[in-house]
Amino acid sequence: MATIKDVAKMAGVSTTTVSHVINKTRHVADETTQAVIDAIKALNYSPSAVARSLKVNTTKSIGMVVTTSEAPYFAEIIHAVEEQCYRQGYSLFLCNTQNDPDKVKNHLEMLAKKRVDGVLVMCSEYLDDSRHALKDFSYMPMVVMDWGPVNPDTDLILDNSFEGGYLAGKHLVENGHKKIGYLSAELKKVTAKQRYQGFMKALSEANVTMNPDWLFEGSFEPEDGYECMNKLLAMENKPTAVFCCNDIMALGAISAIADKGLRVPDDISVIGYDNVHSSRFFAPPLTTIHQSKAHLGERALKLLFERISNKEAKRETIEIHPELVVRKSVKKIL
């Protein structure tokens, strides 16, 4: 394998000159530059990424710490970030935490050792241990992409879950529904709580009272949507519509409804949240609350690049506002 000394020898220059040509750290005469480039091509020389990063103080790499890359919502955001990294010539280190504070800390330590230029964090819930870990690594450029803590050491992007829950509840009551159930993730989770609070505000404005027996808590998984919906369907008094606090729970709920020989929306209406790519292919296509996942990923990465280039830049809060997407899973009651 060729070394920088081999390139310098073939080009008839010093290794320092070769380094300046590669890293563009000093002007080198055009003729000399071309000689170095020709030698690099002839020898198929590839500079050491580690050595180069030490000289130019960048690794051209980004870390991304997420709850899980398997969930469709996270997967779509990760795809957008990865695509933008590729276009900018950056590598992406992806770390899954499963909301384990120890994993959050260990992943951040690993990314720091790899000298990544910055870190994106999207961990759904931030326990005290996780908050401390973020603060411990606040010397790295960092963007918290979801409903994390208001940390003065990081930029922050807010998804406005309260607003999204409000839109979902308002759409159901505007379509004549007064008997509405709610399938939620654990309400101790910040995002689930905010969506529920927004939903309840919409019902309150319409003078609609939700039966507390129609509120079920699970997690953001299809199995929980399926199980919670079965419990709801087992009741003698059933709602005419259900709000699921994410699309994947809605998928499980629709499956449970079909298993009972019922139809959406003829027998019961369903509305979801997130507008994941597959929601338009549900049977029927799912009415849901859209969050621009591609925009979120792109904007967060752009903000991180700004933090990398100017570590003294002012901290920012960027808001993403949800939108209602009307499809065919909600029936209008006359």
TrEMBL record:
Pathway membership, UniProt: Purine metabolism; purine nucleotide biosynthesis [regulation]
PROSITE patterns: HTH_LACI_1, HTH_LACI_2
GO-annotated molecular function: DNA-binding transcription factor activity; transcription cis-regulatory region binding
Domain notes: Consists of two structural and functional domains: an N-terminal DNA-binding domain, approximately the first 60 residues, and a larger C-terminal domain, approximately 280 residues, which imparts the function of corepressor binding and oligomerization.
Chain residues that bind hypoxanthine: 73, 189, 191, 220, 274
InterPro entries: HTH_LacI, LacI/GalR-like_sensor, Lambda_DNA-bd_dom_sf, Peripla_BP_I, PurR_sensor_dom, Tscrpt_reg_HTH_PurR
Name of the protein in its database record: HTH-type transcriptional repressor PurR
Biological source species: Pasteurella bettyae CCUG 2042
Keyword Nucleotide-binding: no
Chain ranges of the HTH lacI-type domain: 2-56
Alphabetical list of HAMAP family matching this protein: HTH_type_PurR (MF_01277)
Function of the molecule: Is the main repressor of the genes involved in the de novo synthesis of purine nucleotides, regulating purB, purC, purEK, purF, purHD, purL, purMN and guaBA expression. PurR is allosterically activated to bind its cognate DNA by binding the purine corepressors, hypoxanthine or guanine, thereby effecting transcription repression.
Keywords carried by this UniProt record: DNA-binding, Purine biosynthesis, Repressor, Transcription, Transcription regulation
Gene symbol of the encoding locus: purR
Segments of the chain annotated as binding DNA: 4-23, 48-56
Oligomeric and partner information: Homodimer.
